[in-house]
Write a structure and sequence with these properties.
This protein is of the alpha+beta class. The chain has 2 domains: 29-60 and 216-307, FAD/NAD(P)-binding domain (3-Layer(bba) Sandwich); 69-211, Beta Barrel (Elongation Factor Tu (Ef-tu), domain 3). Helices cover 32% and strands 13% of the residues. The chain has 9 helices and 10 strands. It has helices at 3-16, 45-55, 99-111, 132-137, 189-196, 221-224, 249-267, 280-290, 315-337; strands spanning 35-37, 59-65, 69-71, 81-82, 92-97, 164-170, 177-180, 207-209, 213-219, 237-239. The chain has a 6-stranded antiparallel sheet.
Length: 344
């Protein structure tokens, strides 16, 4: 998905909708009436303070990092190969490394100059998005079992799996920009350029966006939110997206849908609802509402959120069964909210 094109499309649709008024100004206080707070990772200090005054200091934060993006025309395609892991769709460009090349790259990475935090920064990383330099410092082989793992990728020129692989993923619809998968980083920009150009096929890579770090603010959801995403102590006030304690575009959009649905139900005098626990969204919001509040971190969609299926079957068959069961349960739930919709 082209994120710029998608966000532009949504902005245009919202701006032109006859029933929506777009007000472009900072919100420093919690509005009166039915409200959804979906302020993303960069909630302003003013609004954060307003939330603290009302609900107490139940805020957490972690540091997230984005991967560098390179220009496609600057990639040496003679040194890369297109493939998906385990023969899946060939959506990735793969830059293979020999053991000697990996060792040289690893040693340069652990010695590279990184972002020096300000005194007020407490660098707590989200474990699903740890900067590549931090992973490298955990051990020589950490990257080989993480973003640079070669498992399931066969170099067609050798017929073998390489020692290590750097994968590139298409970032825009036109295919002009490609990001380094799993290479989120907080290194200084000259160091990023030096390291990227040590990767086979990227010796002359033109970097169109360097990796950056940013602070994500989110609520301690188990202390504040119910499974409907409504604040337990404030009827008609909802949270969605990163602020509610989820990670990822899909998860943010899904919680936005549920918060919007329940805000509308409150406006109609109906109680808020939550999807069935067999569905991924249902499992996600139940996790937010019931997780251990001590050390709570944002959650993304994963199979551990939904109940396992009974019976003996392989992992692939089990996932397919869980998917079918979740889809049927969610469709039936959605149809039940609106009797005019056909039941599955």
């Amino acid at each position: 998905m082209d994120r710029e094109e998608f966000s532009g499309y949504i902005t245009e649709r919202l701006s032109r909708h006859p029933l929506i008024e777009v007000v472009r100004e900072e919100v420093g206080e919690i509005p009166e009436g039915i409200t959804i707070l979906a302020t993303g990772p960069l909630t302003s200090e003013a609004l954060a303070e307003a939330l603290k005054r009302r609900f107490g200091d139940h805020f957490l934060a972690y540091y997230d990092a984005a991967s560098p993006i390179v220009l496609y025309e600057s990639i040496d395609l003679t040194k890369c190969f297109r493939a998906g892991r385990y023969g899946q769709s060939a959506d990735y460009l793969n830059c293979p490394m020999t053991e000697k090349e990996y060792r040289r790259f690893y040693e340069a990475l652990v010695q590279a100059e990184k972002h020096v935090p300000h005194d007020w920064e407490n660098l707590q990383f989200f474990e699903a998005c740890v900067p590549v330099e931090e992973l490298a410092r955990r051990g020589y082989q950490t990257l080989l079992f993480g973003p640079m793992k070669p498992v399931g990728l066969v170099d067609p020129r050798t017929g073998k799996e390489p020692y290590a692989v750097v994968q590139l993923r298409q970032e825009d619809k036109a295919g002009r920009m490609w990001s380094l998968v799993g290479f989120q980083t907080g290194l200084k920009w000259p160091e990023q350029k030096r390291l990227i150009q040590m990767i086979p096929g990227l010796e002359n890579a033109e970097i169109v966006r360097y990796g950056v770090m940013h602070r994500n603010t989110y609520l301690n959801a188990p202390r504040l939110l119910g499974e409907t995403l409504e604040f337990r102590e404030a009827e008609g006030l909802f949270a969605a997206g990163v602020l509610a304690g989820v990670e990822g575009y899909l998860e943010s959009a899904a919680t936005g849908f549920l918060a919007g649905l329940n805000a509308a139900r409150r406006a109609l005098g109906l109680p808020p609802v939550a999807p069935p626990e067999e569905s991924m969204l249902g499992g996600l919001v139940r996790y937010l509402a019931t997780a251990n509040p001590e050390g709570f971190q944002p959650m993304y969609a994963n199979w551990g959120l939904v109940p396992a299926v009974e019976g003996r079957m392989g992992k692939k068959e089990k996932r397919q069964a869980m998917y079918r069961r979740g889809l049927e349960a969610f469709s039936a739930w959605l149809s039940g909210l609106n009797p005019s919709l056909p039941r599955p």
